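tool_call predict_complex ligand=glutamine
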Amino acid sequence: ISSTELTSEFLQRIQQLNPEYNAFITVNEELSLAQARAADQMIAAGQASPLTGIPIAQKDIFCAKGWLTTCGSKMLSNFVSPYDAGVIERFNQAGAVNIGKTNMDEFAMGSSNETSYYGPVKNPWDHAAVPGGSSGGAACAVAARLACAATGTDTGGSIRQPAALCGISGIKPTYGLVSRYGMIAFASSLDQGGPMAKSAEDLALLLNVMVGFDPRDSTSLQREAEDYARDLQKPLAGLRIGLPKEYFAAGMSNDVASAIEKALDEYRKLGAQTVEISLPNAPLAIPVYYVLAPAEASSNLSRFDGVRYGHRAESYSDLADMYRKSRAQGFGPEVKRRILIGTYVLSHGYYDAYYIKAQKLRRLIAQDFADAYRQCDIIMGPTTPTVAFNLGEKSGDPIQMYLSDIYTSAANLTGMPAMSIPVGFGDKNRPIGLHIIGNYFKEAQMLNVAHQYQ
Ligand code: GLN
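tool_result ok
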């Protein structure tokens, strides 16, 4: 099958099913098919690599030249990017096809995709359920087979939580491996792009393309290239799996607990051993995250002022009024809430009490993990405390929504790689994810561990 045929098939499926799912904000058949035809030429010329001609959905947080790039916000509802993000460039060089831009929570702030200016996304397993967020459109697109794979970004769990709730696999690599250039910034010290796909094997092929040094991102790491698929077949005998007792405590629902227990049994059968570990400061991850992420967001989002790009109010009296009205109209309630919290914790008089304190706790959380890795090779637990909740169930209660990331946000605070893989179904037949956290740069080992289960 040619890339042009494959791409046409997916475009047709999207046309048929997206009105129901709302997984894509933008589809551009002309641009996608042009890439498919170029890929077919690469293939004919013998220049194909594993992703050449493969339709991949791009989260609408990645700037892609000629594509509307909204970040799920009214603020950018008219922004056609004049340039490609580092990640998009790498996919283009590999000959992959951009099959469309996926729906997401506004500026990646959310856990259910309900904060998107473009409306919520449905969970393909149960249309009453949320797909998770913020990469909800990406997770839905992969689960509903509207794309072969997708990109996501993860600031506190936004790749892993939607992957878990939609029954697919997703990995947040070690901070600094994937370029943030052209990836619209939320909380720069936590944001990391990564792939979402059906299997660990697919994630490895995607990582091989996505990872790489980019001088335009000041936190991009310069490391020797590795093949993330190299260890997929390794046996797991002797692997020590750490189970943090803080993650196996109250809060986890029974259906999730039993699915995780079953998965761990499978790992024991594969020759791994489990050891109890402790991450005493891990329960602080959510409060720390909700000081630091809004602080960074309030600074990053100051660039949206209605002057250079994005939404500008139609009528205003002077410059300050133009800023005020443009931002009041362009941002939704969750984004405004974050800007207010962030501005508050950074303000004179509160900076030491909140921001500095959170930074210190961030350090302690990282130390917990460093200590734990003396007793185990890899850490496992649930990705989320419950299966997907219903649309509308938590959208009126920010604190309940924030708790969706109770297990995932520590990996962003420490910069460690973490992934979610599907391990069965729970209440109402909704999917459950196993969370696998690795030490820095252990992606190949994590993919091996995931692949052996799958
Ligand atoms: N749910 C978290 C938040 O709302 C994390 C989002 C993300 O990882 N982008 O901030």
